[in-house]
């Protein structure tokens, strides 16, 4: 489906779905011979940008990245594919879900390396956040992803409120009590 020109514009998820496949070359590896996590993060940022900018029709910046857990090591010689789609749109922000898989070319074994969610914000020529098109959900999976992304956004807001209140107690004895059982010591 192509972009609709109704006002305000809406675009289908399929309009901006993006896949990047990259060969893992030796210069991407660490001392242990596995691929650096930072290489994968950089590729994820790239595919998130392409997907977000295509939906937004504007330049986008990365506002935040959800937890990234590396489930499997990636080897030199593997083919890594990053599949990205817009899961959710707010006013000026959108959430891009990215699934990363690695494939051993000789054995054809495919591993799920990680899944993560990038929040991107569209910017106008003055570098100000600008409204993004609405999202046309084309199947049940798109609906599920939209609802799940909205829930994660709410949970993140709750978490932020609680995290902002974390504060060390003024009382020194109370501090020491809080550290009982931890692998640390306060130098005198
Ligand atoms: C992210 C950024 C655009 C937010 O700008 P801002 O002036 O705070 O804008 P607003 O408060 O109007 O927020 C704009 C949108 O971003 C969202 N947003 C802002 N910070 C966010 C965060 N940390 N996580 C998720 N969403 C965020 C807001 O919820 C809002 O979404 P909505 O319009 O869909 O409701 C701005 O902080 C920025 O440009 N940061 C640098 C981004 C960058 O350079 N990234 C590359 C890093 S190397």
Please provide a written account of the structure:
This protein has 188 residues and is of the alpha+beta class. It has one domain: Hotdog Thioesterase (Thiol Ester Dehydrase, Chain A). It has 4 helices and 7 strands. It has helices at 13-16, 37-56, 140-164, 172-178; strands spanning 10-12, 18-23, 59-65, 79-89, 93-103, 110-123, 134-136. The strands form 2 sheets. The chain has a 5-stranded antiparallel sheet with strand order 2-4-5-6-3. It has a two-stranded parallel ribbon with strand order 1-7. It binds coenzyme A. The site of coenzyme A has 11 residues, from β3 and β6.
How do the helices and strands line up, and which of them pair or pack?
Elements: E1 10-12, H1 13-16, E2 18-23, H2 37-56, E3 59-65, E4 79-89, E5 93-103, E6 110-123, E7 134-136, H3 140-164, H4 172-178
Parallel strand pairs: 1-7
Antiparallel strand pairs: 2-4, 3-6, 4-5, 5-6
Bound molecules: coenzyme A.
Strand adjacency order, main sheet: 2-4-5-6-3
Q: Treating each run of at least 4 consecutive H or I residues as one helix, how many helices?
A: 4
> What's the CATH superfamily, by name?
Hotdog Thioesterase
- Rounded mean pLDDT score: 95
How much strand?
Answer: 25-35%
**Element order, helices and strands?**
EHEHEEEEEHH
Helix content percent band: 25-40%
Q: What is the number of beta strands? A: 7
- Identify the bound ligands: coenzyme A
């Amino acid at each position: 489906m192509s972009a609709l020109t109704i006002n305000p514009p809406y675009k289908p998820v399929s309009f901006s779905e993006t896949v990047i496949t990259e060969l893992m070359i030796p210069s991407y590896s660490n001392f242990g011979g596995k691929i650096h996590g930072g290489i994968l993060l950089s590729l994820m940022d790239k595919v998130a940008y392409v997907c977000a900018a295509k939906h937004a029709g504007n330049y986008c910046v990365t506002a935040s990245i959800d937890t990234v857990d590396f489930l499997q090591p990636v080897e030199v010689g593997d083919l890594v594919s990053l599949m990205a789609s817009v899961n959710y749109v707010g006013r000026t922000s959108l959430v891009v879900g990215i699934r990363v898989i690695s494939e051993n070319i000789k054995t054809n074994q495919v591993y799920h390396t990680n899944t993560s969610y990038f929040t991107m914000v569209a910017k106008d020529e003055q570098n100000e956040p600008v409204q993004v098109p609405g999202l046309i959900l084309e199947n049940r999976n798109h609906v599920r992803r939209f609802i799940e992304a909205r829930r994660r956004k709410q949970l993140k807001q709750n978490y932020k409120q609680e995290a902002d209140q974390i504060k060390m107690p003024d009382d020194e004895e109370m501090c020491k009590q809080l550290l009982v059982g931890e692998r640390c010591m306060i130098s005198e």
